[in-house]
Design a protein that fits this description.
Chitinase A, domain 3; globular
Length: 91
């Protein structure tokens, strides 16, 4: 199975929670990714495309594969920082 996901990468838990609050307040995930994400994918609304198991760091992969389409994770800590992950497809 593969998952299609977008993410927002920030450096601190406080920043991740702040972005999550804006998301819950009705702002679009893609716009928030463009505004806050430190990952180059932020320019594309955080879109990472499809990926299979073994292609992402463990914590990220576990979270992404456990989410339903359209669902957004809480902050996920990896060696890169804190991610908010939104699953946009599965195949």
């Amino acid at each position: 199975m593969q998952v299609k996901a977008s993410h927002i990468l920030v450096s601190s838990l406080n920043e991740a929670n702040s972005v999550l609050s804006e998301l819950h307040g009705g702002k679009s995930f893609e716009e928030l990714a463009k505004k806050y994400s430190s990952c180059p994918s932020g320019r594309d609304g955080g879109n990472l495309g499809f990926f299979g198991k073994g292609q992402m760091v463990g914590e990220f992969e576990t979270a992404a594969f456990s989410l339903d389409i359209g669902q957004v994770s809480g902050p996920i800590k990896t060696q890169f920082g804190y991610h908010l992950i939104k699953v946009t497809g599965k195949k």
